Amino acid sequence: MRCFFSVFLCSYFSVVLTATKSSDDLAWPKDYTLANKQAITIYQPQVDSFQEGVIDTTSAFKINRENKEYYGTFNMIGKALVNKETSLVTISDIKISNVQLPVGGFHGGGIHR
Fold first, then answer.
1. What span, in angstroms and rounded, lies between the C-alpha atoms of 113 and 6?
2. C-alpha closest to that of 102 among 61, 67, 56
3. 27 and 43 Cβ atoms separated by less than 8 Å
4. pLDDT tens sequence across 25-46
5. Is the peptide bond before 29 cis (omega within 30 degrees of 0)?
6. pLDDT along the chain (113 residues), means of 10
7. 9 in any annotated domain
8. What residues form DSSP beta bridges with 70?
9. Taking Cα atoms as reference points, which of 56, 55, 75 lies closest to residue 9?
10. 65 domain residue, yes or no
11. Could you list the residue range(s) of the whole structural domain that residue 47 is in?
12. What is the model's pLDDT at position 68?
């Protein structure tokens, strides 16, 4: 599950953060339904650092699986290009790390890192 979720996040950020945004696209949180019918919500990233064009963030997420909610977090780092005219940031070369998932409903308790 961790590997699948990391691939999902990389795909999400590489498509969503580089696209042209309408005002609806800028709203948080983001809700998705995965191919296996699980619902996932990604909450707005919180900036941990932004230095020399590199942004490091932490985001929370929620997965609905079998009518239960599971929460976790992940870190994202990437190159940031700021457009001052539109007040938007385009992020490229994205790397997802430190995905933390609760495994109580998956494998018997604790946090999966």
1. 11
2. 61
3. no
4. 778 999 988 888 788 899 999 9
5. yes
6. 52 46 74 85 94 95 86 94 90 92 57 45
7. yes
8. 63
9. 75
10. yes
11. 2-104
12. 84
Contact 21, 38 (CB under 8 A): no
Total tally of structural domains belonging to the chain = 1
Tokens 């494998």 map to which residue?
107
Task: Output the pLDDT for position 78.
Answer: 96
Nearest to 9 by CA among 97, 105, 101: 97
- Is there a domain that residue 109 lies in? no
What tokens were used for 56? 């490091």
Instruction: Please report whether residue 111 resides in a domain.
Output: no
- 73: β partners: 60, 100
Q: What is the CB neighbour count within 10 angstroms for residue 108?
A: 7
Do residues 82 and 89 touch, judged by C-beta distance below 8 A? yes
Show the tokens assigned to 35. 């191919």
CB of 37 closer than 8 Å to CB of 65: no
Q: Return the structure tokens found at 91.
A: 């992020």
- pLDDT of 48 reads 97
